[in-house]
């Protein structure tokens, strides 16, 4: 380096070197001899040489770039560049983006209400959140965001795209949208609003409940319990004849809330989800508890390509234990677990630390949850092929090879056989919901042996 190099540059390299996990990790007993230690030392030396190159480039930029660079931008850019070699769910969150992410889990912020992801160099819509400005403006899953307020999004970081769309209620955001069937991109002006996600909403249809869970945030399970009690009250205090648990376009959220919602429908001491980190490290199994369990009425879980992550955990748990029939279209296929680490300057690191598996050991990464009954959005329609799923995201984890002991996903059937005209649902325009309600009505009307649970 040049003579003007400052001591903090050397300290930076030392910090990276000493804070790396391999700098402190002890070798597993009996698995590392002299050859293993030598190989590890060689890797450490190679990493140190690479850090020297990084420090040298930083020095050249600071001392010789045509304009005085912003040090924080340089460092944040270096971190972001490093993480962009990993999976799309591992991201660096600058302080302002990290603050907004913490607000997300509380269920209220100023913005449009769009879940987005990177697909190659493009920003695409995973799903518009129900009853938000984006949904009301007609934004659809699979739409490509070509531009935001006149700025092209090609190569744009997801965090920056979110930052541009969020802000005080009443502000105008101009989205440039490209969609299959469009001859050219179209501009849609949307006014920001207070996005208050009431994560659970319900309705009663002839004694059968329909509960929409929009995402998994703080208190989602508590809100679900209150909504189920409210529906029982509307039903004259009687137990529900069945329940449609609607997870369509639910992008996920907090793992502990997904576990709690699954637990609500399962008897005690059943596995709900297991997680395994690198080389099987940190393996955990979340199990149901024998309290506050709902009665054994029949349940249908509605899913689609916008059902991701925590939604897939719930659908997979109830499917594996035979507690619910899964109806709709294949889910998104995100089978990884992230932890969020708050850093000293108020920024955050969202880091993928494990894969998760259904109770029977199925990995849903790339594959998603396959419904028991394949039901498109419209009668006689087809499952859309242009919707973005995990397998379409750049740098996503590949699905693990199917182990011989891993059960195969169920083969999806067409429409259930017990469907019959029902005046309660005759005017419903939501085709998958109509099919789910008609299916549950048929089960509830059948003799008791036909309603036996599949556990």
Automatic annotation (TrEMBL):
PROSITE patterns: PDZ. GO terms for cellular component: outer membrane-bounded periplasmic space. One of its GO terms (molecular function) is endopeptidase activity. Pfam families: CtpB_N-like, PDZ_6, Peptidase_S41. Residues 100-180 form the PDZ domain. Residues 400-412 have a biased composition (Low complexity). CDD domains: cpPDZ_CPP-like, Peptidase_S41_CPP. Keywords: Hydrolase, Protease, Serine protease, Signal. The keyword ATP-binding does not apply. Gene3D superfamilies: 2-enoyl-CoA Hydratase, Chain A, domain 1, 2.30.42.10, 3.30.750.44. SMART domains: PDZ, TSPc. GO terms for biological process: proteolysis; signal transduction. Residues 1-25 form the signal peptide. InterPro entries: ClpP/crotonase-like_dom_sf (IPR029045), CtpA/B_N (IPR055210), PDZ (IPR001478), PDZ_6 (IPR041489), PDZ_sf (IPR036034), Peptidase_S41A (IPR004447), Tail-specific_protease (IPR005151). The keyword Cytoplasm does not apply. Residues 398-418 are annotated as: Disordered. Belongs to the peptidase S41A family. This is Carboxyl-terminal protease family protein. It comes from Myxococcus fulvus (strain ATCC BAA-855 / HW-1). The lineage of its organism: Bacteria, Pseudomonadati, Myxococcota, Myxococcia, Myxococcales.
């Amino acid at each position: 380096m040049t003579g003007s190099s400052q001591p903090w540059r050397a300290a930076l390299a030392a910090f990276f070197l000493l804070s790396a996990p391999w700098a402190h990790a002890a070798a597993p007993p009996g698995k590392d001899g002299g050859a293993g230690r030598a190989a590890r030392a060689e890797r450490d030396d190679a990493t140190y040489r690479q850090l020297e190159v990084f420090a040298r480039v930083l020095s050249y930029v600071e001392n010789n770039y045509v304009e005085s660079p912003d040090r924080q931008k340089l460092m944040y850019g270096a971190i972001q560049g490093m993480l962009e070699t990993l999976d799309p769910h591992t991201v660096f969150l600058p302080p302002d983006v990290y603050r907004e992410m913490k607000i997300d889990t509380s269920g209220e912020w100023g913005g449009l209400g769009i879940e987005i992801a990177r697909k190659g160099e493009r920003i695409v819509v995973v799903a518009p959140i129900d009853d938000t400005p984006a949904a009301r403006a007609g934004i659809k899953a699979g739409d490509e965001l070509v531009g935001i307020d006149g700025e092209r999004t090609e190569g744009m970081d997801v965090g920056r795209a979110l930052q541009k769309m969020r802000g005080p209620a009443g502000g105008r955001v101009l989205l440039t949208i490209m969609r299959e069937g469009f001859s050219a991109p179209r501009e849609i002006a949307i006014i920001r609003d207070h996005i208050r996600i009431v994560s659970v909403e319900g309705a009663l249809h002839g004694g059968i409940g329909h509960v929409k869970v929009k995402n998994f945030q703080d208190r989602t399970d508590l809100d679900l319990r209150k909504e189920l009690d409210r529906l029982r009250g509307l039903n004259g205090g009687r137990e529900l004849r069945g329940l449609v648990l609607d997870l369509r376009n639910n992008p996920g959220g907090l793992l502990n809330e997904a576990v709690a919602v699954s637990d609500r429908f399962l008897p005690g001491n059943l596995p709900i989800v297991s997680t395994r980190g690198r080389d099987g490290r940190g393996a955990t199994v979340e199990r149901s508890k024998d309290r506050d369990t709902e009665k054994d009425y029949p349940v249908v879980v509605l899913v689609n390509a916008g059902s991701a992550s925590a939604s897939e955990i719930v659908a997979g748990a109830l499917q594996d234990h035979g507690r619910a029939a899964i109806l709709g279209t294949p889910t998104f296929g995100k089978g990884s677990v992230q932890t969020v680490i708050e850093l000293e300057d108020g920024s955050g690191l969202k880091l993928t630390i494990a894969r998760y598996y259904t109770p029977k050991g199925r990995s849903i990464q790339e594959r998603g949850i396959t419904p028991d009954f394949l039901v498109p959005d419209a009668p006689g329609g087809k499952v859309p092929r242009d919707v973005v799923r995990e397998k379409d995201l750049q740098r996503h984890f590949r699905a693990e090879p199917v182990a011989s002991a891993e059960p195969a996903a169920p083969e999806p059937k067409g429409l259930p056989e017990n469907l019959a005209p029902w005046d309660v649902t005759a005017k419903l325009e939501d085709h998958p919901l109509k099919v789910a309600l008609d299916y549950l009505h048929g089960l509830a009307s059948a003799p008791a042996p036909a309603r036996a649970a599949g556990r």
